[in-house]
Amino acid sequence: MMSVVISQPCPACKGFMVVEHPDWADFIRYFKQRGLKIIDMENGVADAWFAGRGHLFPPAQKIPCTHCRATGLVNDAIPLDRFIQLINQQEYSSCRLH
Ligand SMILES: [Zn+2]
Predict the structure, then answer these.
(1) Mean pLDDT of all residues belonging to the chain
(2) pTM for this structure?
(3) What's the 62 CA to ligand 1 centre distance in angstroms?
């Protein structure tokens, strides 16, 4: 069966090519749970927290998406008959063909 390769927005970064550093996601959760304010970050809370994670300094908040190699797109090969069904449903009508 023939297949068609289509590009779709990366599910990990939603096509933005970057994702939040996982330690930042944890830090923001910690920050919110404790009801901390921005001023607390300036007082070294963030530096101390990230030091506890082994960072000399807080890392970049956004890092290149590894799922799509920072292209924002992922390729999927789908069988031709399934592709035709999807076109008819218009689910993939905005996808780019290769
Ligand atoms: Zn991605």
Answers:
(1) 86
(2) 0.64
(3) 12
